[in-house]
Amino acid sequence: MKTKLTSPSAPDPVAVELQTPNPNAPTQTIVTVGDQQHEVDIESTAANAGLIRINHQVHRYVTHRDGDRILVWIDGQSFKFNTVNNVPRRSGAASTAAAGNDITAPMPGTILKILVDPGDCVTAHQPLIIMESMKMEMTLSAPADATIRQISCHEGELVERDATLATLERSE
Fold this sequence. Notes:
Number of domains: 2
Distance between the termini: 28 Å
CATH architecture of the largest domain: Beta Barrel
Low-confidence stretches: 86-99
Mean pLDDT: 77
Helix content: under 10%
Strand content: over 45%
Number of strands: 16
């Protein structure tokens, strides 16, 4: 999952990306903030809550999302963020080229909400589909201005990584 966030204490948006490199160890996550990478272990203990292990230190967290606002509580400190845009993560240039104009699932998960219908015209970075994976919500967005040609999933469906979720026809 990759997104850009702003904070009242930071003047410019910061790109934040969460990656789970090993499907056999789903709690091990690489968090990239700007150009810095951190290896962490994220364990969910409840919906939107859990433990984060960083450098052998354990921290409790709770998150809450309200539209474009994300509130994070870590060990008694509160952090507020606003999403600038969500960028769909691709599994590589080769698969993107092969897939053409397909929006694919970046990891296995459940489709929570489909925000568009076939025939809709969308703009670059417009949210299309919201999915959940490992108790994290991610928004898949249009990579460019386009028209939705087909929706290949439905709300509540469990999808595999790289499953085609929607097909776009890019605007000229």
